[in-house]
Amino acid sequence: MQPSEMVMNPKQVFLSVLIFGVAGLLLFMYLQVWIEEQHTGRVEKKREQKATSVTREQIRGHITNQNLKFHITEDPKGKKENLLLDSERPMRVFTKTSHSQGEDRVLGKTTGPPTIKLIAKHQGTRTVFKKFSEMKWPLDIHPLNKSLIKDNKWKETDVAQEKRRSFLQESCKKYGGVSRPQSHLFHMVSRIYVEDKHKILYCEVPKAGCSNWKRILMVLSGLASSAYNISHDAVHYGKHLKKLDSFDLKGIYTRLNTYTKAVFVRDPMERLVSAFRDKFEHPNSYYHPVFGKAIIKKYRPNACEEALNNGSGVKFKEFVHYLLDSHRPVGMDIHWEKVSKLCYPCLINYDFVGKFETLEEDANYFLQLIGAPKELKFPNFKDRHSSDERTNAQVVRQYLKDLTRTERQLIYDFYDLDYLMFNYTTPFL
């Protein structure tokens, strides 16, 4: 073919351009329709997801409103608006507690999911927070209501009680040095049991008659007919009794200011030895593996494999080394924690201060004060290990023999506030 024959004439060129132009236009129109369809589909999908999300949020809000006690959130501004709450701790925003009483519900009716708006917008909640921030600390001490005491046999007990309360108050002024709570409010009241019928607040101090006191509270609240028929497990693991930290702020505030507050204490050294004997000298499926193994591993050189594996056989000296160690291998426990950190007696002025050394007499006097049934008496039986001799001053001396004078002094220093506040004499050092 000659080159001249390969050249297209103008008519052919025009026709070719026209064909390609129409094809391009059709392709463009098709792509435009496809893109619009894809965009519309995504928009509709987002709308559906948004609607589903709203529905789920409403459901979550409804469930939270019905079931949760509180919602925890960080204070976004870090303001110390509530002086009772440590500024570094999360703030509890209440929705509804599990109790049916009106004062323990949300402080008013709300709509929509529970959020931090409960604090920002709800007048009732703001009022309660304001009351707490304006509360005078320590709480005022109230005179005991002795109108129900008709028997002169309690005269000496009453005199001793007044002396204890006054001594505690003066000791707190002299040694406590506390004018504002330094701990989280809910932690401060976490050891306090509530008995609403007789309006009692009892702060639990382990190894100071607390098991029998819980039995008494169960009888007073109608959960049992006799304190002698309640097992150890029912007392400690039954979850029958309410604690003060289970209530909302209004419930805590009201009870702290209107209920009779009681605490029962014990000589710190006796209490420590009693706790050691109970938890480490008898089989225990919790304290041996959790505390015993850690104590033996750190404080017993060349410990045998069996002791390291089961944690049994902790010696009192090793236990004391753990107690006094600022870098303990395992944390503190309520059975040997200081009363000053369990019950905060320099912030919560207790109306009644009982002692383990005069437990029955003090407890039965207290029961008269609060109007308990006349037939109800404080039980005097030993809760566990009943065949063992009770821990007393003589038993304590036997345990202290294994310690150096310095170690004995350090134990006293550890519990110094408890000794001072409750007027216990300096132990044998």
Class from secondary-structure proportions: alpha/beta
In which order are the strands of the major sheet placed?
5-3-4-6-7
Percent of sequence in beta strands = 5-15%
H/E series, N to C?
HHEEHHHHEEHHEHEHHHHHEHHHH
> Residue-averaged pLDDT, rounded?
77
Q: Measure the end-to-end span.
A: 126 Å
Uncertain segments are 43-48, 50-133
Quick one: overall form? Answer: elongated
Rg over C-alpha atoms, rounded to the nearest angstrom: 35 Å
Main sheet record: 5 strands, mixed
The total of beta strands comes to 7
Number of helices: 18
- Helix share, percent: 40-55%
What does this structure look like?
The protein contains 18 helices and 7 strands. The chain is of the alpha/beta class. Strand 3 (192-195) and strand 4 form a beta hairpin. The model is unreliable at 43-48 and 50-133 (pLDDT under 50).
List the helices and strands and how they pair.
Elements: H1 3-6, H2 10-67, E1 70-73, E2 91-94, H3 117-120, H4 123-134, H5 155-176, H6 185-188, E3 192-195, E4 200-203, H7 210-220, H8 232-237, E5 242-243, H9 249-258, E6 260-265, H10 268-280, H11 287-299, H12 305-310, H13 316-324, H14 339-342, E7 352-355, H15 359-369, H16 393-400, H17 405-414, H18 416-421
Keywords, separated by commas or semicolons:
429 residues, 49% helix, alpha/beta, elongated, 7% strand, two-stranded antiparallel ribbon, 5-stranded mixed beta sheet
